[in-house]
Amino acid sequence: MTLRAKINREGVPTANFAPWHSAGAGPITRPMKSFLKMHGLGNDFVIFDARTFPLPIDGAAARAIADRKRGIGCDQIILIERAKKGADAFMRIYNADGGEVESCGNAARCVGSLLMAEMEKGEVVLATSGGPVYCVDAGGGSVTVDLGAPRLDWREIPMGQAVDTASFALEVPGFDDPALAEVAAVSVGNPHCVLFVKDAERAPVMTLGPAIERHPWFPSRTNVEFIEPRGRGTLRMRVWERGAGVTLACGTGACAAAVAAHLRGITGRKVMLILDGGELAVEWRESDDHVLMTGPAKFSFAGEVDLKALAANA
pLDDT-derived band of residue 52, with 50, 70 and 90 as boundaries? Predict the structure, then answer.
């Protein structure tokens, strides 16, 4: 079975629970939607193929799917939709809180790996709300994602205050943290706030992360990276993701951190990010200003779900 068949099985409309139905009753059937569960360094996704059949997924449905006790469970929900503007597909992204967001680097690796296998190509282009994303097979189960040039102007991130995004002070009520004196902000299709800390393991990710996510200076909210430099070529990173909370990895966050670290003179243009879920290699290429990220894309399992029943039980 090809990967396309796995993620595009709308032709399997029912699930039969005949062994459990009462005597004399007909089989119980329900409309089902096929999905794939994948992850990039533990940052996990439920992926639907919506290129042929439209799917009734909105913010409420996304929250129900992402629920780890009542739903399937994931950090983000991904819809693969028909290509726009010459891309191979459009990648629509919902966070676990139901909010639709612009970009996701780890999901791009997963979707890119699916499409490259399906199309028997070594590279594909994904359109996203945050701009085009170029995916290339890096071998060994890894994918390189080109996220384009980082956006460093405060209006592009966006921010509600004019600042030097390479280094500015951020006041957060209730927090007196030295890292807030020299914050950086970067967009790589979605907004990021980067803090450099002495010890990432002890950083207040669970408390300071959500406070910064909803800080009034970030009108679209923001992802928050806590970065500990470990030499010229290595950064330790922990992350609070906008709309998802603490995750094991954030691909765009790793890219934003690498850009911020180079702007500070902490690292060169090539750096290894050590995240809770594993390692990502990032290069901020000098020739064209593009940011490239390389890491694994892993398949977990395939399944089917009754979206209406799931939403009703949310």
Answer: very high
Give me the catalytic one of 74, 104, 110, 193: 104
Query: Is 153 contained in some domain?
Result: no
User: Tens digits of per-residue pLDDT, 56-95?
Assistant: 899 999 999 999 999 999 999 999 999 877 899 999 999 9
104 is catalytic: yes
Is 94 part of any domain?
yes
Looking up residue 244, the CATH number of its domain turns out to be: 3.10.310.10
* Candidates 74, 135, 250, 255; catalytic one: 250
Return d(Cα 155, Cα 219) in angstroms, integer: 11
Q: What is the DSSP code (8-state) at residue 36?
A: E
Are residue 119 and residue 205 in the same domain, yes or no? no
pLDDT at residue number 311: 82
Q: Residue 144 in contact with residue 281, Cβ under 8 Å?
A: no
What pLDDT, in 10s, does the model give residues 274-297? 999 999 999 999 999 999 999 999
Same structural domain for residues 188 and 88? no
d(CA 54, CA 57): 9
Domain coverage including residue 8: 3-134+299-312
How many structural domains compose the chain? 2
Instruction: Give burial (CB, 10 Å; 0-12/13-18/19+) of 119.
Output: middle
Residue 145 in domain: no
82 found inside a domain: yes
The predicted structure's pLDDT at residue 46: 98
Mean pLDDT (the chain, rounded): 91
Are residues 186 and 110 both part of a single domain?
no
For 310, residues 6+ apart whose C-beta sits below 8 A from its C-beta are: 61, 64, 65, 70, 71
